[in-house]
Amino acid sequence: MGGTDAKDILGLPKTPLSLTQEKKSRPQKESHRKPDGISREVYALTGGVAPLMPSIDVTQLKRRPPADEKVSWQWLPFTSSARKDDLQLYHWVRVVNNVPPTGDYNFAKYNKSVDILNYTDEEYENHLTDPVWTKEETDQFFEFCHNFDLRFVVIADRFPVSRTVEELKDRYYSVNRALLRARAQSPADVANHPLIKEPYDITRDRERKRALSMVLSQSRHQEKKDAEILAEAKRITEMRLAARRAEEPVVSANENAGLDKADGVVPGSSVSPSSNSQLPATAVAPSTLTMADYASTLASLRMLHVYLRTYGLEQMVQAASSAVGLRTIKRVEQTLQDLGVNLKPKVPTKTVCDEHLELRKEILTLLNLQKQLQYKESEGSSHREGSFAAMPDTPKDRVFASDPFSFGAERPIKKEQKRKGPGRQADTPSPAHKRPRKMKASDL
Amino acid sequence: MTSSSSSKKQAQDQPETSEPTLKSLKTKMTKSDEKKKLKDIEISVPIVYGNVAFWLGKKASEYQSHKWAVYVRGATNEDISVVVKKVVFQLHSSFNNPTRVIEEPPFEVSESGWGEFEIAMTLHFHSDVCDKPLSLYHHLKLYPEDESGPLTMKKPVVVESYDEIVFPDPSESFLARVQNHLALTFPRLPSGYNLPAPMQVDDTGKKKRGDTKDHSLGQWFTSFSEADELLQLAAARQQVQAHIAKLRRQISVLEGQNQTIKTGSDL
After folding, report:
1. Is the Cα dihedral B237, B240, B246, B252 positive or negative?
2. Integer Cα distance of A248 and A255 in angstroms
3. 3-state SS record for chain B
4. Residue B165, strand partner residues
5. What is the pLDDT of residue B4?
6. Mean pLDDT, to the nearest integer, of A388-405?
7. With CB atoms counted within 10 Å of each terminal CB, which end of chain B scores lower, N or C?
8. Which of A253, A349, A413 comes nearest B164 by C-beta?
9. Can you state the angle between helices A350-385 and A309-321, rounded to 10 degrees?
10. What is the pLDDT of residues A332-358, one digit of tens each?
11. Which residue ranges have biased composition labelled Basic residues (chain A) (predicted)?
């Protein structure tokens, strides 16, 4: 009710419709205060905004009839042009100064009907014969069309011979088309008529309806699967398209760098034939978090028919990192460096690449576990202290947390280390200061 | 070694004569065999590509200060023309005929110049190997990393990169042709799988050897070994795994603790 009031309080502009602001004076007035003539509540029923096309002439509403008119109501007969017979009905009529209103019945204008072409018997013989439809049937059909205003569904229902809706439509449109052609002075005249330019295709219509009902009746599960498959296909075509695009100007050294970046994400709408030119780095849109990523990367590599092992490794690394954020990727790289491992193997044989990939995966697991541990620790201490002050607040760029809570949990670990003895270098970056530079190859 | 010599003969086929080889293979094999590709079998060809550059010293002029050679070779210096039909080197546009097509091993281009730029090498393979070409990119290096040191005519600047060409879906004809060739790593075939015997090609003309074992620049070639890297990776993995185990223990300990605390506070 208080639409404008609420907007007033909030200080919001009251006319969301720019259309009303285009007109000049009247809409302005109407939007900022309720118009005279109708009460505020009634006006608010329309949403507090003037309708786009005011159906009521608002200024007329509260106007009183001019005093010199004498108005009476009379029970008078009337006829309607909409009726074909001469039936006279009666209704109340507002009579002004003893002059009854003239003109047709007010509602006769709504009696619209569809114009149906009518054919003569001769025309039928010449153009409209059809193996499936008899003349009587066609005549009856057209009468139905006229009666039911071309509502094919109703006609199909009532037609004595059972026909599908598509068949009826087909017959109707082909009859019309034939008649048009026959009656036209020359073919050129009718060439632009929509019936001639785009004829009704019954098989297409059937297919369309079938497909529509299939989509409608799809279970949710099916929908998900379809979406997944489409995403997969899109990814693969994107890869192919990007690789193919870059294949063309491979000769010019200068173009390469720019092309790599530009082709990174190009949506491929059609499947291009398998294309194999190698780029140092093509960006592939990552999708889901699962092992499916590896499998699909392998599949797309195989599609290339030939590729460089470094490229293959890059793709697999990207697949592995697709589910994680940039920060984590940086941490993985930092860890690799700390371990003395080249970020890109210098001698990328199959074994080396496999090992490298496994190492990266293990590092990801490691980082996940660290996060888990932090979380558990904070959980534990918050339980102990009964407060929420123990929210893990570690700076994210450090591999290990240095918050005080870890000390509490570390006591058991210290014992373990001592038991293991000095030989285990991997654990020596001691718990007291778990620092990022923990592991070096030289530690071994 | 008879097998290698016979495969060498095959490898030294010019593209023209390899065609008849293929055709006669076709008549021997059925249509379905030709098209058949095996699953999960890949052939990889280890290659090394890069450049060697000599400073010309007193013979150097402003525009010709270095003599360099850019190339693609087998990593073990074996002949890769068994797989590679030709290599197209795309040089800087300031060179005469910047597009150099090398159809015979050794696949290299020698030039003299003064500038460093990126070179694209497109490898085209034989028709039974792969339809699509593969591109490699190498930045030509003339000047040593150590900028302050004096230039010497004796030792060249060498930059090489190791990589492997992977054919994930080799055709049977390809497999048959290259079995026992030293330039590539041949996969282990599923047991009971029999490849047709390689065609014996009569070698009427004496072909140039395609391997780079006695190459004039051979002394500067880098020898790449995966051993060091493997060692490093294994060590790293071990460390990470140990750390993971430790963390897992810690987490389970904490979970135990948390549980007791929880139940304690519930009371």
Report:
1. negative
2. 11
3. CHHHHHHHHHHCCCHHHHHHHHHHHHHHCCHHHHHCECCCCCEEEEEEEEEEEEECHHHCCCCCCEEEEEEEEECCCCCHHHCEEEEEEECCCCCCCCEEEECCCCEEEEEEECCCCEEEEEEEECCCCCCCCEEEEEECCCCCCCCCCCCCCCCCEEEEEEEEEEECCCEHHHHHHHCCCCCCECCCCCCCCCCCCCCCCCCCCCCCCCCCCCCCCHHHCCCCCHHHHHHHHHHHHHHHHHHHHHHHHHHHHHHHHHHHHHHHHHC
4. A308, B45
5. 43
6. 42
7. C
8. A349
9. 10
10. 999 999 988 888 998 999 999 999 999
11. 432-444
Among B95, B243, B249, B265, which would you mutate to test the A interface (most chain A Cβ atoms within 10 Å of its Cβ)?
B243
Residue A276 tokens read as: 């194999």
Structure tokens at B82: 């068994």
Burial zone of B112 (CB within 10 Å; 0-12 exposed, 13-18 middle, 19+ buried): middle
Q: Is the pLDDT of residue B165 over 60?
A: yes
Q: Give the residues across from B136 on adjacent strands.
A: B121
Q: How many CB atoms lie within 10 A of CB A11?
A: 6
Chain B residues touching A252 at Cβ < 8 A:
90, 93
Over pLDDT 70: what percentage of chain A? Answer: 66
- Contact by Cβ (8 Å): B173, B43: no
CB of B244 less than 8 A from some CB of A = yes
Q: Distance between CA B127 and CA A361 in Å, rounded? A: 38
What mean pLDDT value characterizes chain B? Answer: 79
CA dist., res. A253 & res. A338, Å (int)? 35
SS (H, E, C) B204-218: CCCCCCCCCCCCCCH
A3-7, A75-79, A83-87, range with the lowest pLDDT: A3-7
Q: What is the pLDDT of residues B236-248, one digit of tens each?
A: 999 999 999 998 8
Instruction: Give the model's pLDDT for residue B239.
Output: 92
Question: Would you call A276 helix, strand, or coil by DSSP?
Answer: coil
Tally of CB atoms within 10 A around A167: 17
Q: Dig out the tokens for A231 from the structure.
A: 């995403």
Residues 13-42, chain B, touching A (beta carbon < 8 A): none
Residue of chain B nearest A428, judged by CA positions: B243
| Spatial separation of the C-alpha atoms in residues A418 and A413, rounded to whole Å | 9
Q: Which of A46-55, A326-335, B108-117 has the least mean pLDDT?
A: A46-55
Instruction: Return d(Cα A18, Cα A26) in angstroms, integer.
Output: 14
DSSP string, A360-413: HHHHHHHHHHHHHHHHHHHHHHHHHHTSSTT-----TTSSS---THHHHHHHHH
Q: Cβ contact (<8 Å) for A409 and B250?
A: yes
Does the structure show a pLDDT above 90 at A423?
no
Cβ separation B230–A342 shorter than 8 A: no
pLDDT in tens, A11-55: 776 555 444 444 444 444 444 555 666 677 777 776 766 666 666
If one counts every other C-beta atom within 10 angstroms of the C-beta of residue A86, the result is: 6
CA pair distance A282, A239, nearest whole angstrom = 8
ipTM of the complex: 0.77
End-to-end Cα, chain A, rounded Å: 78
What is the arithmetic mean of pLDDT over A191-207? 81
Least confident range from A211-215, A414-418, B176-180, B240-244: namely: A414-418
Mean pLDDT of B145-162: 83
- A114 burial level (CB within 10 Å; 0-12, 13-18, 19+): exposed
Can you say how many angstroms the Cα of residue A270 is from the centroid of all Cα atoms in its chain?
Answer: 19
Please tell me the distance from the alpha carbon of residue A427 to that of residue B69, in angstroms, as a whole number. 50
Task: Give tens-digit pLDDT for B13-55.
Answer: 444 444 444 444 444 444 444 444 456 788 899 999 999 999 8
A47: tokens are: 């949403």
User: What gap in Å lies between CA B18 and CA A232, rounded to an integer?
Assistant: 40
What is the C-alpha to C-alpha distance for residues A263 and A284, in angstroms, rounded to an integer? 10
